[in-house]
Amino acid sequence: MPEISQLGKSQYFEWGSILWFVEPGNLDIERMSVGLITFYPRTTQDEHLHSGDEQVIYVVSGAGAQIIDDQTYRLQPGDIKHIHPYTRHKVINDTDDELKLIIVYTPSKFQRLLAQPPSASPTGGEADIRALLDLDVIRGLLNKLSEAIGLSLTIIDTAGETVVKADNYPRFCALLDGASGGRHCRPYVERVIGAIGRTHGPHFFQCCNNVASILIPIFDGATVIGYIRCGQVYLNKPDQDELQRTIDALAARYAIPACDLLAGSTAIRIEPKSRLYAAAEATFAVASLITEMSAAALRQKELDNSRLSLVKEQIASAKLEQALREADFKLLQSQINPHFLFNTLNTIAQMAYIDGAEKVANLVWSLSDLLRFTLRKTEELIPLREELKMLDNYLHIQQSRFGSRLSVAFDIQPGLDETLIPCMLLQPLVENAIVHGFELSDGEGAITITVRRRGRSLHCRVRDNGLGFDPQADPAGKGGGIGLASVKNRLQYYFKDQYRFAIHSEKSRGTTVELTFPAIGGN
C-alpha cells in the first residue's frame, strides 16, 4: 500500500497542512474536493468565509473547537460537522496533540461557466465597457459580492486595463499597479485574455509572486467586452526565502519600501483552489448580470435622464438579488460525483484498519454510507423514506459516540414513504437537538421524530428533552444556529409562504421544532 503522502497533494499553512486526495484541476471538472487536515498543537486557523461552498468535516483524532458565526462547538473523535454556505468559520486546536480532520468541499457546477456565448450581439458590434456601464453602480455590486465571497473582484477591459475594482483589492497588487502604471501584471493578464479568445471560457492563472486568480469573460452577445478577475489569493504559503528575494527585487525596481510590499504580501489570503472555483460560480452570475445591464444601458439612453437613474437602479437591485439567490441555491444543491470521495474514504479506512485502529475504520465506513446520500447528485425533492434512511445512518454514528446517553424514537404515520420533502430537512433539526440540547450536559438525551399527514399538509416534529432556552431571552431561537436558518431557507425556496415553522422551548425542559408544508406525492 502506498504511503499516505503519495496519495495526494499537500498545502501548508502557519497552523498546519492539508493533504488533498481529490482537488479539481480545471474549471471543466465537476466534483468535490476531499482532504486530510492536520492542525498543529496550540494553533488557530484564520477565520474564513464559506462564500458559496458547503463543507462536511469528520474528526479522525485529537480534539479542539470550531467557531461558526461566533458560536463555539467542541470537536471530538467521531464528530461529523456540517458548515453551511455564507458562514464565517475557523478551527482551534487548544490541545498539545495534533488534530486531524477529513474535510469534504462541495464545489460549484461549472457547465454554465463553460457555455458558449450567443451568436448575435444585442449592441450590434464591439463596444467599450466603460461606455455601457454606470461604474458607480458596478462598483457597488462588486463590493457587495466581494464581501459575500471574501475574495477580490476587478473588472478589466479587453486590453487588460483595470476599469473598476472592489474595495478589498490586495494592497500588494495596488502598490505594484501604482508604481508601474498598471504595467507590472499586464503580461500575465494579456496571455490569459488570449487563451479566453480561443476557448470563450474562464481561465485560472497565477501571476507575479504566484498570486492566483480566475478571469471570467463578460459578453455582449457574441463579443467579449471585458473580464471579471476573481481571487488574488495564494494557493500555498510562500517560501519565505524566495518571497524575500522577490520583495527585494520588486522594491529596487519600483522604489517601493520593502517593508510595505512584505506587509501587503503577508495580508494576501491562502485558499484552496476548490474555494476559488466555488466563488467563480457566483462571480459568473454577476458577469451575466453586467452583460444584461450593458444592453439595458443602451436602451435607457433613449429615455429621459430623470427616469434613467431610477430605472437602472431598480434593474440592478432586482437582477443582483436574483443572481445571488440563484448562485446561492445552485452552490447549496451543487451536483457532484461521489465516486472519488468513496474511493478516498475506503483507502483511509483500510489504512486505519491495517494500523489496528478498527473503531476508526468502522466509523469511516459508516461515514462513507452517510455521505453517499448527502453528497450524491440529488433531485430537488426526495421521498420521505430516503430522508429517514439517511437520518438512521447519521444517528448510528452519533450513537457510537454517545452510547446509551442518546435514545431516539421514530413515530411515522404509515403510507408516507413516497411523500416528497426537501432533501436534508430533518437532519439539521436532529443535529441541533444533539448539539444544543444535551451535548454539553452530562444527562441522557431523548429525541422523538414525528411525521403526520393532515389533509393536504405534512406535519413534522422533532422534540428533545435537552437544555432548552428562554424564549424571552432568545425570542427568535438563535441558539439553534445556522442549521435552523438552512431549514427555513429550504422551505421558503420550495413552498414560498405556504409553510409554517415554529419553535417551542422551555429552559431545562427541552425544545420542540414543528414544520408544516404542502404534502406532495405519496399514497
Automatic annotation (TrEMBL):
Keywords tagged on the record: Kinase, Transferase, Two-component regulatory system
GO molecular function list: kinase activity
Annotated ranges, domain Histidine kinase: 425-521
Entries under Gene3D superfamilies matching the protein: Histidine kinase-like ATPase, C-terminal domain, Jelly Rolls
Pfam families noted in UniProt: Cupin_2, HATPase_c, His_kinase, PocR
Family annotation (CDD domains): cupin_RmlC-like (cd02208)
InterPro entries: Bact_2-comp_sensor_kinase, Cupin_2, HATPase_C_sf, HATPase_dom, His_kinase_dom, PocR_dom, RmlC-like_jellyroll, RmlC_Cupin_sf
Name under which the protein is recorded: Histidine kinase
SUPFAM superfamilies: ATPase domain of HSP90 chaperone/DNA topoisomerase II/histidine kinase, RmlC-like cupins
